[in-house]
Amino acid sequence: MQISQSNRHLIFIILWYSFLFCYQYTEACNLQDQQSLLAFSEPLTSPLGPLKWSTSSDCCSSWEGIGCDDNGRITRLWIPGRELTGYISSSLGNLTSLSQLNISYNFLTGVLPAGVFSSLSSLDIVDISSNRLRGNLSASLPLGSNLTSFNASNNELTGHFPSSICKTSPLLKTLDFSRNFFNGEIPVGLGRCSNLEVFRADCNYLSGELPGDIYSLQSLVVLSLAANNISGTIQGILSLTNLKIIELYGNYFTGEIPQDIAKLSKLEQLLLHLNNFSGSIPASLMNCTQLIKLTLRGYNLQGYTSALDFSRLVQLQILDIGHNNFTGNLPQSLFSCKSLTAIGVASNRLSGEISPNIVELKSLSFLCLSGNKFINVFDTIRILLGCKNLETLILSNNYYDETLPAEKSFIGPAEFTNLQVLALGGCNFRGRFPEWLLHIKSLGVLDLSYNQITGRIPDWFGTLPSLFYLDLSVNRLSGEFALPLNSFPALKSEGSAHKLSQSNLKLPYNIQVN
Ligand SMILES: *[C@@H]1O[C@H](CO)[C@@H](O)[C@H](O)[C@H]1NC(C)=O
Ligand SMILES: *[C@@H]1O[C@H](CO)[C@@H](O)[C@H](O)[C@H]1NC(C)=O
Ligand SMILES: *[C@@H]1O[C@H](CO)[C@@H](O)[C@H](O)[C@H]1NC(C)=O
Ligand SMILES: *[C@@H]1O[C@H](CO)[C@@H](O)[C@H](O)[C@H]1NC(C)=O
Ligand SMILES: *[C@@H]1O[C@H](CO)[C@@H](O)[C@H](O)[C@H]1NC(C)=O
Ligand SMILES: *[C@@H]1O[C@H](CO)[C@@H](O)[C@H](O)[C@H]1NC(C)=O
Ligand SMILES: *[C@@H]1O[C@H](CO)[C@@H](O)[C@H](O)[C@H]1NC(C)=O
Ligand SMILES: *[C@@H]1O[C@H](CO)[C@@H](O)[C@H](O)[C@H]1NC(C)=O
Ligand SMILES: *[C@@H]1O[C@H](CO)[C@@H](O)[C@H](O)[C@H]1NC(C)=O
């Protein structure tokens, strides 16, 4: 096809205008801002080479991590994960149009310069997380009234918790102060951040009770204060009806889990383990139908588990109620929670036989029943062969004085194909060495300690390809444990521990039985 002369002319005009359009908004970089950036970069070094900030090019259009507004003022300084070492220069405080600052995942040290943020009134996003910044954060505040997101997590910041940040920055939606050294009580003040959606301050040294104004944060979706020293009851959180994630584990909370917890109808994760709660699991918790993770391990909860109706928790993936004082069997209703991947009920007073219905949990990869009064190990293992995805099976300290099946044919060669951790310690099992282990080629960790297993360890045993942790102590095994030179191939190959897939570490467990 021929393009006529006039059409060519038209095309030229279109190209010319699009050229103009693309470039008309890029002003040259403001010279003072450029000076401030260069001063900021002076104390910084990186094994990846210096920041690509060359004075021979325009800082708005070609400097690494820099963005400008229409007037050539610098609005964005975004250099995370650049392996930068050095300190933060006070010249940062001269970039007065800055709205987005991300220097996370570097190796920056030293204290933040006093008041460095106080002239940066346009700041919207500040991410200084995952560095090694020290000192009193309060002395570097305020951060301006437009701030919506502040992440200072994973540094070495000290001093009292800076609740006052909400006085000057009331529009905050995200506040992450986790993994620092803040101490003392959380002062009143956070209540002014009425838009706050995410509040994290886990892994600090915070103590005392939660300040009452936290319970007015109606927009809050994530509340994480895990691994601190906080006490008091959690009754107040019932007013935070938008909460999806509550992480309060590893504190000194007391009292009962609130009876009307179902008011938190959006709850997806309730992680309360390692506190000092008492009482029982309220029936209303079983109405939190969005629950995905529920951990109540390690305090004095009691009650008859069979009375709990889990059947509405169809999203539940992780359940840990270990180290409490529960009685009864695993509740039948649990087997209708088809999403379950991990169940931990260690160290309670549960009893009875495992129900064949457990095989309905097709995704189950972690099961820990240790330290209860379950019976019938023969049927238990036969039934669990039906859980094809099982990777970790901890049955220790149950089945007292029963006989552990020994025959090779007890399981078939194509069963337990994903099993990596098997603990059968402390059961006082009778019988010969379980020959059926021969079939479990994926086995990495085996605990048979504290039993009464007799006879010889079979010759094939040292050839299990993946085994790297073995405890046969305190048994009545005889003969020599003479292994061929090629025994335990996984013990010899470096990094075999890493082969243990992450998923079987879903819940903490203790392989040692004594
Ligand atoms: C900062 O950059 C890191 C690395 O790219 C990113 O993961 C993080 O989300 C950024 N921070 C914000 C607040 O966007
Ligand atoms: C900030 O800018 C002022 C003048 O605008 C200048 O005097 C001062 O030295 C600058 N500070 C830093 C640390 O660059
Ligand atoms: C805060 O944000 C608003 C809306 O984006 C803007 O008009 C205002 O200039 C900003 N304030 C500052 C101090 O930058
Ligand atoms: C804050 O930054 C850390 C990494 O430095 C990240 O893991 C965390 O998710 C961030 N917090 C929020 C609320 O995005
Ligand atoms: C931290 O800084 C704030 C504000 O400058 C000050 O009031 C407070 O006393 C300081 N705290 C410590 C422990 O130095
Ligand atoms: C945490 O609280 C416990 C008991 O109340 C106390 O012994 C301990 O010193 C506290 N630790 C910190 C870091 O505050
Ligand atoms: C835990 O609660 C019990 C009573 O319920 C109390 O005796 C004990 O001192 C509490 N422990 C801590 C560390 O607060
Ligand atoms: C759970 O929800 C059902 C239906 O919404 C309601 O009838 C029942 O009373 C609730 N149970 C508890 C203990 O809140
Ligand atoms: C467990 O419950 C029994 C009775 O139900 C009680 O005697 C025992 O003290 C409780 N144990 C703990 C640690 O609370």
From TrEMBL:
Residues 32-69 form the Leucine-rich repeat-containing N-terminal plant-type domain. It comes from the Eukaryota. It is found in: Cell membrane; Membrane. PANTHER family: LEUCINE-RICH REPEAT SERINE/THREONINE-PROTEIN KINASE 1, LEUCINE-RICH REPEAT-CONTAINING N-TERMINAL PLANT-TYPE DOMAIN-CONTAINING PROTEIN. Keywords: Cell membrane, Glycoprotein, Leucine-rich repeat, Membrane, Receptor, Repeat, Signal, Transmembrane, Transmembrane helix. Residues 1-28 form the signal peptide. Belongs to the RLP family. InterPro entries: Leu-rich_rpt (IPR001611), Leu-rich_rpt_typical-subtyp (IPR003591), LRR_dom_sf (IPR032675), LRR_N_plant-typ (IPR013210), LRRC69/RLP (IPR052595). GO terms for cellular component: plasma membrane. This is Leucine-rich repeat-containing N-terminal plant-type domain-containing protein. It holds the Pfam family LRR_8. The keyword Glycoprotein applies. Its main location: membrane. It is a single-pass membrane protein. The keyword Transmembrane applies. Gene3D superfamilies: Ribonuclease Inhibitor.
